[in-house]
Design a protein that fits this description.
Length: 318
């Protein structure tokens, strides 16, 4: 979602200038219709073959689709509020950057509670057997940070590695993105060992929204660089690196470590697509699917969906 973005403004201006000079071409979002307002989307395919999305909204927003193209509002995950998040939100209802997955007959919803520009934050877990509004049981706190932690407990993503071990990446700005082992019985950290997987020490720490997907022999770490939430002036862009281990080290196409600011740019602002970012990836019958938000010319956050193919073990968006 965001944090401490004030530190990144200078570097963002420089990055924007370079991007304008290079004038790269990016694919436009694929066809979608219906209720497309979304921010920080995550999508899971349901056992019946439909799609469930969650996104940043009051009490966590939900949407459904039967065909991955037409989207409908499906209410809030917690229509009666989420009082347990108040210590981190100050009472604001807006809950950020959910992560949906489905395991053992249950939907898992990790999401973040914080305030803009603060690292007093927490990631919580809820589960549901249906995914419907009002069906979610609060499973409590997963991980929290304070104003002095040096990283931020926001933007969770659960990944099950090739051996079946669960992990959660999250963060961040500040000292960057972390990953922690998760006990699949509880959905909570198995130990206190936080492993750093990406950072931008020379760019104000402006990296957040990790999403890890396994494909073939690699784990791909998707992240968002720069500034998320400024309407049509947003500078968010989608970056990727890969590793043969879920805990890294992740490197970009040029071999640069993501701990040193590395990342291969997959999508940045182009035409009427402003600040694309906070992506998720899920696997469908026709391949891996990229979902993200972007701002339209009017400054409204919209759902973007594209497909991913792999060339020489690197993702290509089409
Ligand atoms: C996972 O959590 C359960 C329930 O607390 C506990 O019994 C089990 O030992 C934990 N597993 C590991 C591998 O830590």
């Amino acid at each position: 979602m965001m944090s401490l973005r004030k530190f990144a403004v200078g570097s963002m201006l420089a990055a924007t200038a370079v991007a304008a000079l290079v004038a790269r071409q990016f694919v436009n979002p694929g066809p979608v219709s219906g209720d497309l307002f979304i921010h920080d989307p995550t999508v899971v395919k349901t056992p019946s073959g439909t799609y469930l999305a969650a996104f940043t909204a009051d009490n966590v927003g939900l949407k459904t689709s039967t065909d991955r193209t037409v989207w409908r509002d499906a209410g809030a995950a917690f229509p009666n509020g989420a009082s347990w998040t108040t210590p981190y939100t100050g009472g604001a209802k807006n809950l950020w950057a959910p992560d949906l997955s489905y395991h053992n007959g249950q939907y898992y919803l990790y999401y973040s509670a914080s305030t803009f520009g603060s690292t007093k934050s927490a990631i919580f877990l809820a589960t549901s057997s249906t995914g419907a509004s009002g069906s979610w049981s609060n499973k409590g706190l997963v991980i929290e940070t304070t104003e002095t932690s040096g990283y931020n407990a926001i933007d969770p993503n659960l990944i099950v590695d090739a051996s079946g071990q669960w992990w959660m990446s999250f963060g961040s700005f500040s000292s960057g993105l972390k990953i922690v082992k998760i006990n699949s019985s509880t959905g909570k950290p198995a130990d206190n060992n936080l492993i750093s997987i990406a950072a931008r020490p020379s760019n104000g720490g402006a990296v957040e929204a990790p999403y890890i997907i396994r494909h073939g022999n690699y784990y791909y770490l998707w992240v968002s660089f720069d500034s998320c939430c400024k309407g049509a002036a947003s500078t968010y862009r989608i970056m990727v690196g890969r590793s043969t281990s879920v805990t890294g080290p992740y490197v970009d196409r040029a071999g640069k470590s993501m701990m040193e600011g590395g990342g291969t740019e997959m999508m940045a602002s182009h035409g009427s697509i402003h600040g694309p970012g906070h992506n998720a990836v899920f696997t469908d019958g026709d391949g891996d699917v990229l979902v993200y938000h972007y701002y339209n010319d009017a400054g409204t956050a919209q759902l973007g969906i594209n497909l991913i193919r792999y060339e020489s073990d690197w993702p290509v968006i089409y």
